[in-house]
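1st attempt posting a full record on here, be nice pls
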Amino acid sequence: MNATLNRLIKQLSLEPVTTDIFLGESTDMLHTGRIFGGQVLGQALMAASLTVVPERHVHSMHCYFIRPGDVNLPVRYEVERVRDGGSFSMRRVTAYQEDKHIFTLSASFQVEEAGFDHQDAMPQVPGPEHFLSEADLVRQYAHILPKGLSQRFLVDGNPIEIRTSNPQQYFVPGHYEPSCFMWFRANGQMPDNPLAHKAMLAYMSDFYLLFTTLLPHEQVPFDKNMQMASLDHTLWFHRPINMSEWNLFCVESPNAISARGLSFARVYNQRGELLATAAQEGLIRNVARFPSTS
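the predicted structure (as tokens):
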């Protein structure tokens, strides 16, 4: 197994403190001192899931990012067992660092049952073999990327392999359509544990959503004047996902206003099955182009 992937799997596993309290460790993925949002998404989902019987599977999670997380401090996840009904269970997770509230999650779980079945068709997108890896792109654009981001790919390694359909739009400012496609998979073989695959999807789902909100505005995310942060995040799980296989992330941004950008994403496997849907709103503030009037 890829060493970086193995570290992430261990991170997402959590350390139990009591029945409903867990500790998570962090990695300074971008060398900024701040926790990557996908990490707390995956860890909080894992914490909630560990308090639910295995027969009930997560189908939705709704989250708010309250404060930036410090990679040098452990994260304490406290789970509230809101309800266990006949078919559904509800959990609320609050994440703390040194008693400061940094993140909250509400998640719903359901037993499997028969029901109606339909989905949107998968877009026609060339396969992953047609696109460059992120590592190749970093080598090509290393001169304009933050040093920490380059190190993540070229030195540390990346636990998720991502191949983007139109990568230059994230490096060269322009007026692009606010949408993109990317193939992704774990950078190695995942364990045979469906919960680990869902937590890994939650981790990955924080990539590129905010970046896509910038595409129509002649703005690249690596501009030193940009302040970007996830504000809230929702993920609906429709069908089982295998993170060891290639899956397609289809992202579009319908709106940006008041220094906030909104994006939606759909996740398909190569068989065209709709596996999950994500939504995120985040801060996209350029302090040079839109100086504060206060």
